Fold:
Amino acid sequence: GFTRALVPKANVPRKPVDGMKVIPVTKLSDALSALEEL
Structure:
């Protein structure tokens, strides 16, 4: 299954998701930067 998710900042869950690292992004450039770090 998935262990990480890039999610629009407005849609980040209020409670942590077990076994999932949620990475909030506001712009496409933020998403690309996050992908480079993986």
Observations:
- The radius of gyration is 10 Å.
- The chain is about 25% helix and 25% strand.
- Residues 4-37 form one domain.
- The first helix runs from residue 28 to 37.
